[in-house]
Amino acid sequence: MILPKEIAISRTYERLLNHDNRYRAMGSKLKKCLACGLDKPLKDFGIDRHRSDGHNQRCKTCNRELKRNYIKRDPERVKLRQKEWKLNNPIRAWASSCIAHHKERYKVKFDSAWLTELAKTVNRCPLCGTPLYYDRYNGYSKKNTPSLDRITNFDVLTKDNVMIICYNCNRAKSDRTLIEFVEYCKTVVDRYEYLQDKEDITFKL
Questions:
Q1: Contacts of 23 (CB under 8 A, 6+ apart)
Q2: pLDDT at 23
Q3: What's the whole-number mean pLDDT along residues 90-102?
Q4: Of the candidates 72, 93, 73, 74, which has an alpha carbon nearest to the alpha carbon of residue 82?
Q5: 195, 157 in Cβ contact below 8 A?
Q6: pTM value?
């Protein structure tokens, strides 16, 4: 008998395999970079949905070099424009920063655009109900900061394996799965009630 958990793992593996196959297919198609003039695989170009082939005109290497040169020319102006953009686009800024942070430790199988749309639908922590504020410059306390959490402890982040919760819940959950965290919370509640019922112990909050 196949258990629901085994079915979920199988489906996740199948999605990842399909993604890898599409990625390999991109490697067989070539495109000429507008900046360096070299023919490179499509996977070496960033995504641009406004282009007919869905990719940027310049390769990732050239784009990074152009960005570095632009920052060197006027770093103060760049910082000011970045801050203004984050103030005007708090959810997109949070999503971009979150993706970059998680890519340092995990394989992320979705982009900031998808995470942005998800964040627009989550204004409270689903675990504790705390209001979530994506604007980091509004002076709200850290407990109201949204964070991206893995439902299970896979090293690959997929759309089916992440949720947006508050900073405090994410910190308390640590490396537990969602089910393990719920059981842990139940244990804390049971232990608290046990101490309250004991006559020889005064348990104060």
A1: 43
A2: 47
A3: 91
A4: 93
A5: no
A6: 0.62
Tokens of 28: 């067989």
The two tokens of residue 32 are: 């000429």
At residue 86, what is the residue type? K
Residue 91 CA, distance from chain mean position: 12
Three state DSSP letters for the chain: CCCHHHHHHHHHHHHHHHHHHHHHHHHCCEEECCCCCCEEEHHHEEECCCCCCCEEEEEHHHHHHHHHHHHHHCHHHHHHHHHHHHHHCHHHHHHHHHHHHHHCCCEECCCHHHHHHHHHCCCECCCCCCECCCCCCCCCCHHHCEEEEECCCCCEECCCCEEEEEHHHHHHHCCCCHHHHHHHHHHHHHHHHHHHHCCCCCCCC
